[in-house]
Structures
1.
Amino acid sequence: MRPQLPFAPACERNKVPILAQLLNILPGTGALLEIGSGTGQHAVYMAPRFPHMTWQPTDLEAELEGLRARLEAEGCHQIQSPVPLDVAVGPWPEQLFEAAFSANTAHIMGWPEVCAMFGGIGGCLIAGGVFCLYGPFNRGGGFTAPSNAAFDADLRARDPRMGLRDVEQLARLAECHQMRLDEELAMPANNFLLVFVREAP
Ligand SMILES: C[S@@+](CC[C@H](N)C(=O)[O-])C[C@H]1O[C@@H](n2cnc3c(N)ncnc32)[C@H](O)[C@@H]1O
């Protein structure tokens, strides 16, 4: 019998609108680095839609077993073997990437890990490369919806290091790592897709 694969209902809901945006944003060729791939649902759904790109999934070591199981069951030839990556610890890949993608990670990581994620991505994107960060975010220091306020309170009750991040704070963080916030796309269910572009050195 096929082992049960890890499954996140949110991925099934958000993968279609995220892909619709990525089709307009990603370069179409080159390599993409995914941070916090989780169940691998985004990788297996999206990578085949970019037949001339390779997709490098990563996550914490503890998440890799389930991720590997999904990729073995549903992966395609462009998806590379997943590698362990804790953004705060590394090691970051030595290769350069044309794009990076991460979904629903910035509110799960503590702020020091979010800083490490931006630092690592800034270091391994080519000039002109894009970093697409999906999730719920605050704007102007406030929640964009009551549901996001409730979600934030729930996260902080579970672990005070977690919580929704401010778009403006992320934009300033990106600038410290030679990236600028290029687009802030409103997505269903009070989420955003933030698009950062790596500046030339
Ligand atoms: C809410 S899940 C999102 C997973 C997937 N991207 C999705 O959209 O379903 C958050 C992910 O961030 C990963 N994560 C948390 N801390 C991390 C860190 N320090 N470095 C890398 N990944 C981390 C978790 O292991 C988990 O897979």
Note: The chain has one domain: 9-100+117-136+166-198.
2.
Amino acid sequence: MIRLQKAQEPAVLTSNAETWKQEYLGAIAAGKKRSEIPARYRHATVKSAIAVEAFGKCIYCESKISHALFGDIEHIVPVSIDPSLVVDWTNLGYVCQLCNNHKRDYWDVNLPIINPFGEDPKDHLRFYGPWVTHKAASDRGQITVRVLGLNRTYLLERRKERLDRLTPLVDQVFSMPEGPAKAAMMKFLMEEASASAEYAATVSSYLEHQLVDVPVADETTAIRELDGSVQAPLQRSAESAPGPEISANTSNTDAE
Ligand SMILES: [Zn+2]
């Protein structure tokens, strides 16, 4: 999970949100089931914007959503808790079916799961290899990992595959002579940790630790080639300091 930035609300939602909300609240008041009420928040334009802001990844587990792993629109605050947020732009996010199923209607105002749009997951979570755990004494980190199942087998396997593919490249960069080829390799590795990359939190944490001993000379040959979003890990590596800052624009499916 990485911090994300909410994209601009689609015009179709801005124009229709109040009407759609009243339609939903009226139907609920009339005793209709959710399955009987039009899911206006699934409007194609809305869903597309939600997917793009999340780089096509689940906002919780960072799995790329594909034909094999369906996406859905998540209500961060479940509509069973607050129906008035049914088409609230800030309450919608892109999620995979599995995270959706794990979260269901979980909500505790005193212990909410981490909202990647409103806070930095790194304040609550740590990434060790393929494993995700909570920072010491972070109840919110703990409940987030538990409710979403962030260490389910599927995710552990996928994250391990990502790291296994990067390991030989990290080894290689250490022995490469200074020059454009090494700079390009460093840039590639930084891109693997960028916000749009799958399991970016896992990869950036891994590279932060593995590249910490890369010769500082790389800073002058490689870092000028990098854009702002991926410089931080390399600079910090050279300084033997803590890890990358990754931010992104964001998110899709009806979780909750
Ligand atoms: Zn997910």
Note: The radius of gyration is 20 Å.
3.
Amino acid sequence: MIIGVHTSVALGLHMAVERARDLKCNAMQFFWRNPRSWARVPLSKEEVSLFKGARKASALEIAVIHTPYLINLSSPDDALFEKSVELFKKEFEAAVLLGVDFLVTHLGSHHGKGADSALERIECAMRRVLELSVARGKNYPVVLFENSAGGGNTFGSNIDEIGRALDAADRAGLSAGFCFDTCHGFAAGYPLESRADVKALATLIDNKVGLKRLRLIHLNDSKGALDSRVDRHEHIGKGKIGLKGFRAFLGMKEFKRLPIILETPKETEMDDPKNIKIVKRIVEEQPNG
Ligand SMILES: [Zn+2]
Ligand SMILES: [Zn+2]
């Protein structure tokens, strides 16, 4: 299985690779710069070569950059949309330079203007990303749209919206994919309690998005209840999804085959190894491996 955690780059991008290795992970996700800031110090040549060197020496199969939550690709506000597109372009350029596999982003909020307004903005944003010179060689990471927990006017909390956003990206000429976050999905009203629930979810994703476009799983338990629209991650098995839910989810071949990134809380040094161990155990316990 391919599994990793969201890793801090506080000590340098290459040190995040070291952390993934210490955790015996073959995947990792990170924010390449401060996710709470609009400012971006460009990558230095040294940072890029240290990162690539560390990655080459590791068993890393998948590296993922997550864009900052500041970005609102659905915003009807011209100034915020403009800032968002500019920042997203910098994230995309960094992802190309570092040679990561996926660039995960949320779709933001349409502030009550509705889905069509959001889709128009997303299509426009993706068109502008493809104008970047780094996009010319087609050798760029796959952009993944992540489902959100919902609440307010966020776009992309339901699977249908994700499918429509991916179609909008297609119209712009960008073949994007889907990152399903279990905490967000559960908080947005998709139950994960039984095999039947998980099967229904897989069927829904296949109908609205296409399972081929589902490329990554964010595996998180949820502090919030089903349909609570609360985005608060919990340790695997300790939240409202619970071990039973994760056994059902990871028992489904449609999900088990995908790379997994954990974004569970990090209160102590032991939290990541503990959560990883639990997930590995659940997968090993499955009757057909
Ligand atoms: Zn996310
Ligand atoms: Zn997530």
Note: Residues 66, 106, 146 surround zinc ion (ligand 1) (CB under 6 Å).
4.
Amino acid sequence: MKTLLLCPKDHGNTYTVFSYIQKQMAFSNACDLKVLSPKSDYYLTKAELQNYDRIIFGSGVYGGNLHKKLKEFLFSLKREDVKCRCKLYLALTWFGRSDSNMQVFNQAAEMLDEKGLYLQNNFFSCFGAGFGLVRLGHPNAKELAASLTWFKELDS
Ligand SMILES: Cc1cc2nc3c(=O)[nH]c(=O)nc-3n(C[C@H](O)[C@H](O)[C@H](O)COP(=O)(O)O)c2cc1C
């Protein structure tokens, strides 16, 4: 079971969570971290998607939307780009504004549904810092540990 953690960019709160999971799982060699920025060493090419049995999309929440790069990626994704039994998940960082994490989950689920792909209901979210003092110090050690627990409990 090989997992891809796919992040829009190679910095920020979501990347912090994914880097943590990847480092903790490094011993198993079953978890790769890639990003959607062409300039990054970790850039994902579409062909690589076929290597994975599980893909976890990561994003912040921006005015109730997914990160622009992830949205573009999901828009261009085709059913045949991923293995037929590949399981898809979402992990988010956010401020905790209203139900904006749920809005973003629904947005991703609908985009994937249009491709005939199913986004698993079990999504992860934790706080991420931004705008000065807002959620300063997040994601914290407890949230990072929770992200790893969530990851480990996903069906294998
Ligand atoms: C322009 C902008 C809009 C945001 N909108 C929301 C929002 O609608 N709901 C929320 O809970 N957090 C919101 N946030 C907070 C981000 O989701 C949070 O800081 C997240 O951790 C950013 O992830 P990143 O560091 O990976 O980009 C917003 C942040 C920015 C910069």
Note: The pocket of flavin mononucleotide is lined by residues 12-15, 60-64, 93-97, 100, 128, 130 (CB under 6 Å).
